[in-house]
Specification:
By secondary structure, the chain is mainly alpha-helical. The protein contains 15 helices and 3 strands. Strands 1-3-2 form a 3-stranded mixed sheet, with helices on both faces.
Length: 334
């Protein structure tokens, strides 16, 4: 496990941001001051929803999770759950269980079809055992969260939001979106159980603090989400962002770009609406001007496309695609 952590530290996907790291360590210290010194947090740039806890104190937090969290309380809910695994030593138990069952499955594999059936049985028992751990970790995580003064109801919102995304592609199986989440209970069940555990008491949300902490990375994470190519899921996510913060120029850009890429019925019109709104804001991302130009180009409006492309080049003259955009401009001129 220590060797794996060394590889993780060296990985180009690991985000090395001292300020973000300090912010996350502060949350862990709030949740479990007695274990905080044992935990080492690694933020990994991966556009899927996941976090994990290793028995040696290595915690992974994926950027797809941080993009989806709306506030500090929601992130604390997930970190509290992972700390629950650590406190209860679930990861140690699971590693022992996996080693013994994997050895048994390998032995069964010597006997052809019987071996295949045996491996399926071993796999099923591992999943069932792990789901029991997940429920226990949820309960302990809620206790840690509320002890730290967070609003426990935000834990259910995490899963409610994720449920909205996965339902557009059928079902509530989060395991299909992240193999490492395959052992978790169905999202709807989990949301309902967490609501019961939380009760009605309020608490800290930390919305402003959270937005400030992720601000340097958010645009990159949005672009990672766009590159996933899961248009329906991403639109649900971006709809929620725009609804929560109507003037969110980055979210408007992201949704507009998704519509542009999908290019379905009325999508270009939706794209132009979002991108025009984004580029009209003082904090508009420069990429929004490029996307606006591409959307106008798709609609065969050369004049408007050229204007948008020129604004993009003016704001980002050294952009990697500057030569390509200049070519577009030259071909669009009458």
């Amino acid at each position: 496990m220590d060797r794996e952590e060394t590889r993780l530290r060296r990985s180009p996907f690991t985000i090395r941001d001292p300020a973000l790291g300090a912010y996350l360590r502060d949350i862990v210290s709030r949740l479990s001051p007695e274990h905080a010194e044992d935990i080492r947090i690694h933020v990994v740039r991966t556009p899927l929803f996941n976090a994990s806890m290793a028995p040696n104190g290595m915690m992974q937090v994926w950027s797809g999770l941080m993009l989806r969290a709306e506030n500090e309380a929601q992130l604390a809910a997930v970190l509290g759950h992972e700390l629950g695994h650590y406190v209860e030593k679930h990861t140690v138990e699971r590693m022992r269980d996996v080693k013994s069952k994997a050895a048994f499955a390998q032995f069964m594999g010597m006997f052809g079809i019987v071996g295949a059936i045996g491996q399926l049985g071993v796999l099923a028992s591992m999943f069932a055992f792990s789901r029991e751990h997940e429920v226990r970790a949820d309960r302990l995580g809620m206790q840690l969260m509320e002890r730290a003064g967070y609003d426990g109801r935000e834990a259910a919102k995490v899963w409610d939001n994720l449920l909205g995304e996965v339902k557009v592609t059928g079902g509530d199986d989060v395991g299909k979106r992240s193999p490492m989440m395959a052992t978790h209970p169905p999202i709807e069940n989990r949301r309902n159980d967490l609501l019961k555990l939380a009760g009605t008491a309020g608490g800290r949300l930390g919305s402003d603090e959270y937005r400030k902490a992720i601000a340097p990375h958010r645009m990159g994470w949005l672009q990672d989400e766009i590159r996933r190519g899961q248009y329906e899921e991403s639109i649900v996510l971006f709809d929620r962002m725009v609804r929560d913060v109507p003037g969110d120029a980055q979210a408007l850009y992201a949704r507009g770009e998704i519509y542009r890429q999908r290019a379905g019925d009325r999508d270009i019109e939706r794209s132009l609406e979002d991108l025009t709104a984004s580029t009209g804001m003082p904090d508009a991302p420069v990429e929004a001007f490029r996307s606006l130009g591409l959307a106008f180009k798709q609609r065969v409006d050369g004049v408007a496309a050229t204007q948008a492309f020129e604004k993009y080049l003016s704001a980002a003259p050294e952009a990697a695609d500057a030569s390509l955009i200049k070519t577009y401009i030259s071909t669009l001129k009458p």
